[in-house]
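cron nightly-structures :: item 1 of 1
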Amino acid sequence: MIRAMRKLSILLATLIISVSSLFTACDNDGYSLDKFWVSFATVKTISDNSYYLQLDNGETLWPAAQGFHYSPTNNERVLANYTILSDEQDGYDHFVRVNSLSKILTKGIIDLTTNNQDSIGNDKVVIEDIWYSGEYLNVIFGYNTSNGFIHYINLVNNTTVEHPEDGKVHLEFRHNKNNAPETYGARGVVSFKLDKIISDEDGEVKISVKANEFKGEKTYDITINKEYITNKNISPLEDNINIK
């Protein structure tokens, strides 16, 4: 679920940049302490208080420095704000200073049935970006809300309709605004674990995601190849992103 906040709307307004920007921002003569990157990552715990970050392209970051308290949770999805301190060292691709970690709402796929379709809802959204990386389907979306309302976001297999036999896995992005008045626009980020439909033995999987958008129903076709890995990096932010 996402608690709407005006600050989130501002910070995510110019969210996505290309992967190449991560590397062009680096000095050829070394890394600068006044530069930072913000990337989607998964937390990998080593012990109760020790962890490293795995980017969606498989690269690993060792938190050599950190200016805040964090109790790691294994496989938690985060937006990691970090400064690169060194290249490959001790088996990690980079040693970094972790500036902040913001939790990303993470869910699996659920079945939509006649019993839960009302609570799942189908209120309007706008899909700003949708892609597969790091074993997750990641979505940046916009919606309308008012202060104090909790919104529910799900990726569903709609069992109440018959899907075409076209070789694709048909899913729907669903939003329940919980009767929130549409006073202002906000944005959210969510990662959906796809292990329910993708196994390690699968080569290429095609999925079709339907969304009820403000300009009408829209479908996004995504081809997932387990051998293809990427990393989505986002614009440097002036403040932390808080997601509830």
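cron nightly-structures :: done
The chain has two domains: 2-10+105-233, 31-103.
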